[in-house]
Amino acid sequence: MQEKHRRLAFVNYHSAWDGIPLPSWRHTTYVMKRLQLASHLSPDELKARYRQAADPAARSPWHILWLLAQGQSTEEVARHTGYSKKWIYAVVRRYNAEGPDGVGDRRLQLASHLSPDELKARYRQATDPVARSQWHILWLLAQGQSTEEVARHIGYSKKWIYAVVRRYNAEGPDGVGDRRHANRGGTPLLSQAQQAELRAALAGPAPDGGLWSGPKVAGWMATKLGRKVPPPRGWEMLQRLRYRSYAPRPRHDRSDPQVQVQFKTALPTVLQTVQSAPPAASIELWSSDEHRVGLKPILRRIWCPQGQRPLVAVRPRYQWLYVYGFVCPTTGQTFWLLLPTVSIPAFNVALGEFSEAVGAGPDKQVLLVLDRAGWHMSPQVQVPTGLHLVFLPPYSPELQPAERLWSLTDEPLANRPWRDLDELMEVQAERCRTLQQMPDVVRARTHFHWWPKVT
Question: Which residues pair with 388 in a beta bridge?
Fold first, then answer.
């Protein structure tokens, strides 16, 4: 031991044989020092406090202090009581600093601003998710649960639970809630007048004549501000102005919005007219369209590991077949035909097959909404009994529910090469059979909000 102290006295020097500095005297004596109790109470008084304690949370700290006062080491006390040395150190520090008042139940205490029932009501009524979780924490603590139990139940750390309780104790109910809502945020780079000017500019083409993007907005801002603006600031400004990137919905330049509105308004009237005409019969409202598929590849976006660009083997050829789709948007029912072409004879075949499949006739009237293709409106079209053709306004495919079917039918055809049309036809036919078993998916795609309800 003397040799050790002698070496520690020369801490500022290097060892002659290894060149490594020795540990400092202060650090070594701190490690070697035994835990010391302040002399607030004698060992007998500590024993008496331990024997008389009724609260288990206070009884165990008094036990620890009594054993230490008897001369037991920290390791011995830890083995005897089952507590960690870290907890023993905490008990001694509190006792030394606060005396007997530092011994007892130190669990989190709630101020009596609200009763447990009122805390429960605040929790049930909260609409903000952050405020709701904080009221939940306070309610559980008011019921007597420990901090550890609340942390397990809620999923928050004890540190955050302490912060919530401190705010509630100090500020009352006003201290509960998401304080981020009060943050004003930083001053925007553009003034209100400049933001209005940017909105006007976004309505037209970008300065280079192309499409707007975040970096181009940042360049526009740099020109106005006379300093460099990083590209991400352009995207942030678009977000601040509540702009989003959308794919435009196509509309034919010869379509008439007023005529389209009139069609939506008149369709329920047509439905009621057919329904009220004698003889009395049930009625259904369907929609139909045709879709071309073939050996020309269909490419679609897919999920794949980041950084790995997917490759698809393709062999384009120009051979086609046509999918005739019939859908009842109200129920999601579908009927499908695969035919080699679109023509008046093929359309007559499709109408006959569809009419027979749905049971159209004197006892069941079916309205079929179609576009104005030439083979639909020809005088040579043979309309079966019980079937009524209703034509969309010109250049209005966006009003056709059946148009929404093709993204579903194309899914198994995408990103695949085909040997011939027969192989493609087998896969397409199987897909159509699958869609017949998925009426909810079809209905979600095709049931427009303005589509009439059939009673």
Answer: 367
Dmax (CA) for the chain in angstroms is: 120
Domain housing 348: 257-299+314-446
254: phi then psi, degrees, rounded to nearest 5: -105, 5
pTM flag (> 0.85) = no
Q: Identify the bridge partners of residue 339 per DSSP, sorted by sequence position.
A: 322
Q: Are 314 and 422 in contact (CB under 8 A)?
A: no
- Give the strand pairing for 282-294 and 364-370: parallel
- 307-336 per-position pLDDT tens digit: 999 999 999 999 999 999 999 999 999 999
Helix/strand/coil for 345: helix
Nearest 5°: the CA angle 387, 393, 395 is 125
221 and 344 fall within a common domain: no
**Residue pLDDT, tens place only, 354-394:** 999 999 999 999 999 999 999 999 999 999 999 999 999 99
Give the DSSP letter of residue 412.
Answer: G
Residues 293 and 151: their CA atoms lie apart, in Å, by 58
- How many Å apart are CA 120 and CA 137, to the nearest integer? 10
Query: What is the total count of domains within the chain?
Result: 3
Cα dihedral 88, 74, 30, 22, rounded to 10, equals: -130
Q: At 350, is the secondary structure helix, strand, or coil?
A: helix
* Nearest residue to 131 via CA among 177, 166, 168, 173: 177
